Amino acid sequence: MSLAEAEAGASTAVDVATEMAAIGEAARTAARRLAYATTKEKNAALRAMAKAIREKSEAILAENALDVADARETGAAVSFIDRLTLDPKRVEAMAAGIDEIAALPDPVGTVLAEWDRPNGLHIERVRTPLGVIGIIYESRPNVTADAGALCLKAGNAAILRGGSDSFRSSHAIHGCLVEGLEAAGLPQEAIQIVPTRDRTAVGHMLAGLRGCIDVLVPRGGKSLVARVQQEARVPVFAHLEGVCHVYVDRAADLEMAKKIVVNAKMRRTGICGAAETLLVDRTVAATHLKPLIVALKEAGCLVRGDEESRAVVPGVTPAAEVDWSTEYLDAIIAVKLVDGIKEAIDHIERYGSHHTDAIVTNDQAAANRFLARVDSAIVLHNASTQFADGGEFGMGAEIGIATGKMHARGPVGVEQLTSFKYRVRGSGQIRP
Q: What's the rounded Cα separation, in Å, for the pair 216 and 272?
């Protein structure tokens, strides 16, 4: 590298650092305003955002088409293209999601608990915004709308850093969010998007932007999430992988099991709630296994089975040890016969990622045992794992799924984007 090139690189690094610091300071200032924004103000902004997205749908789709074309030229995987692609239905879903968030109760100021002390003090625990939330995401441009709207509803400022692959799409959507903020008289810095593709911007966010970021939320592939979890100097809401299971119990209705398994795997293979492993009770292998595998294959899924499964259903691709802990994000599923619910739970504990796991059974006792003992953020009985979604939980949308056990777990919606403080009311009390 020449001296001139080195100096240019250093100058660029300084420019990004300065720009990111300014973004952080602006977000902190905006967060102070949002902390006392009224429900009416926030909802007006949200409705204006949804309106702008609908009105600018064609422009958003045009920008997205350019992003998708670039991704295809680079040979991106089908599952990646699916996450990146917008169509009129998905654009409308973004707008509808924002409308749903506007319709949700405002969590800020909610009294979570209150009590009186013998000395006359009245104590309240009250929901408050977290402050400034940084969201680092890849490929899914809809995260721009979901994250910005959820943060605003909870009274937080947001700093969005979308992937370079969805750069145009995310900026087009962000423009609609800014339009909504301005229409409601709220600071446009309440939702900012990093204006550069330069990857050093992520490093500055991980460092916390000089104390301006309170929480980070990564949305993307395993390498991105791992980097954020390892390098972040602020708290992180995230999940590393979505190795999700469906266990078909001996008391499962076969037709129900077929519908659930196919939907859990094939509805959208590239999302974190897609099932990656099918576990089937050995006692119903003769009646249930082949119909389940046939249904998956007819839906276009490649099936990899353990030795027992392949003995029952010849022609299934052999599964290797690595398959049990693999998040395919593709039309592939691993299948294993297990000796009842205990072995199913043990398998999930060993190989799962504590994200989302389901049991299909008409035995309520077995369902209760599974729901109680599977230590995942989301556990389901007789329902598809693809319901692992904040919108499906009635949260309007989600900023992500968290599998940690501190503060937020499962879909991260408006309530999970708040903290709390104590309000203490007295009448002159002093401590002896």
A: 19
